[in-house]
Amino acid sequence: RTFCSCSPVLCVDTTAFVLTIITFPFLFGVMFGDVGHGFFLLLFSIYLILNEASLGSKKLNEIIQMPFDGRYVLLLMSIFSIYCGLIYNEFFSIPMNIFGSTWILTNNSTEYISDTTRTYPLGIDPQWKGAPNELDFYNSFKMKLSILLGIIQMSVGIFISFINATNMKRPLSLLNIWFQFVPQVLFLWAIFGYMCFLILYKWAIDWSPYPVSPPYILPLVINMFLQPTAPPDPLMFPGQGKLNLVLLAIAFLSIPFMLCFKPYFLKKEHEQKVRQAALHHSEQEKAEAHHQEETDDEGLTLSGHGEWDFGEVVIHQIIHTIEFLLGAISNTASYLRLWALSLAHSELSTVFWNRLVAGQIQGGSIPMIFAFWAVWAAGTFSVLLVMESLSAFLHALRLHWVEFQNKFYIGDGFKFAPFDYKKILSGETD
Questions:
Q1: d(Cα 367, Cα 71) in Å, to the nearest integer?
Q2: What would the pLDDT profile of 86-100 be if each residue is shown by its tens digit?
Q3: 138: closest CA among 383, 280, 370, 338?
Q4: Considering only CA atoms, which of 31, 151, 22 is closest in space to residue 87?
Q5: CA separation, residue 342 to residues 31, 44, 131, 142, 155 (Å)
Q6: Per residue in 374-428, pLDDT tens?
Q7: Quick check: 90 and 346 in contact, CB under 8 A?
Q8: Angle in degrees, 0-180, between the axes of helices 134-166 and 194-204, rounded to the nearest 10
Q9: 156 C-beta neighbours (distance < 10 Å), count
Q10: Which of these, 261, 272, 269, lies nearest to 178 by C-alpha position?
């Protein structure tokens, strides 16, 4: 009920609903990742769940009613916040050296070297927190992670459109699979899937033995379009230049498949129905050919509720194709809000701690420590636990409603109205 109130689409598509139960709180946790902040959310959600009988029988304040209605969603959000906080290695912005850092201090405590015999078992090594290049490291990591999560979720949305297409009648089922689902997957993966591959490949390679620094991913992808025949500089793996050309060809060839073939085959199907009706000299069959009620997922009819209009079908397909092509870029960029909010949450928490608590601890004044600790606790609660959690909730909701659901859900058709004697006798319905 909580998910349906946030997005009515989830009450219609059960496949998306099952996935959203996990993906929504997970994306919230990506933006709100902190073990300490997530722990307080967990305590609050457990309190609401344990007292749901007594609280449910009362008329609650609107501010309390909303988290009470979503108490189980809040429980999942807090769990994923704690999990992502372990990955980021942050507890109220303080790193947790649980397993021992893999960085060793040498040269009279002035230089760190990495212990190449092992890696930190869970999450990010605590020594990155407070390092001179801390912001560069977290900025790069969270930006790339946002792109990976975005492409994965959008790909899942396109595969849900495939499931929807299999439930349609032929020929619409085959048309939507071969001339909508397949070219959309090829276009998305040929460009952004390739970018995700480069990100993972860059992470998997130890670049220290190589004479070149690890390449920047974004310039490589941009140059793939601006200079398709030029060899990538630097070359990440053998045959990368030829692979770029193949992927570009696949991406560009998928566009006419999305744009042209579906209207053409819909036109041929309509003409075949008209010929069949004329062959049998049946006015009823002619009417059915012109008043077919079967609709595809864009609301395009094989025959429509009036005269079948090929021009309208073409216009709808052009709009749908342009929307997907531009959306593939804008939706991918929209997932960068995961990076922005996560980084902002972490840096704001760090500023609160360093300026209000750590600085007073170094000063050694006990009354000032308690005074500024109270200010820190109030700021953490009001800004980081209340305002930031609401912000992360709204952004996670937007990513599901817009970037994810527009890959498979089209709100066309007719609302289901079950047969009801009371409504008919009362004159409420025709």
A1: 38
A2: 999 999 989 998 888
A3: 338
A4: 31
A5: 4, 22, 19, 8, 23
A6: 999 999 999 999 999 999 999 999 999 999 999 998 776 666 677 777 877 777 6
A7: yes
A8: 140
A9: 16
A10: 261
